[in-house]
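User: Can you model how guanosine-5'-monophosphate sits in this protein?
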Amino acid sequence: MSYDPNNVFAKILRGAAPCIKVFENQMTLVFMDIMPQADGHLLIIPKESASQIFELSEGAAAACMLTARKAAIAVKTALKPPGIILAQANGSAAGQTVPHYHIHVIPRHSGVFLAPHATQQEDMEKLKQLAERIIAAWPECDESN
Ligand code: 5GP
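Assistant: Here's the modeled complex, given as structure tokens:
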């Protein structure tokens, strides 16, 4: 699939669209999902231009998973959900709505349904407060990964 440089995550990466940033390193960026399915829903994206997992380099795939693991640890520490899902969709048939590769980190609580996917925009102040708590719990790491 050819990469659309005007997708919203590409715009976020080049500073042409805003995001509530949680973490950034050389290869990845983490920010709050603006239409979260649960409190603390994060997105991990590579800086590399890849729409789906099939175009992603092995280096970027590894970097995204390392960052996703740290994101899950930070969410677990900050918000203490009993469960966390990591999810990643490839293609509209799989539910992908933004054509830049990304991993979702979504807190789960038993018996609590997820909010519908990419539907309801969250209050920005609430997202900023959640981001601050997750940033404060981000695990120590080598800047390179
Ligand atoms: P997908 O449907 O591609 O698996 O996930 C895309 C995700 O991006 C959805 O969860 C949706 O809520 C989120 N999203 C869509 N547009 C924006 C945006 O402009 N900013 C942020 N932070 N998230 C977005």
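A couple of observations from the model: Helices lie at 8-13, 58-79, 124-136. The mean pLDDT is 96.
User: Helpful, thanks.
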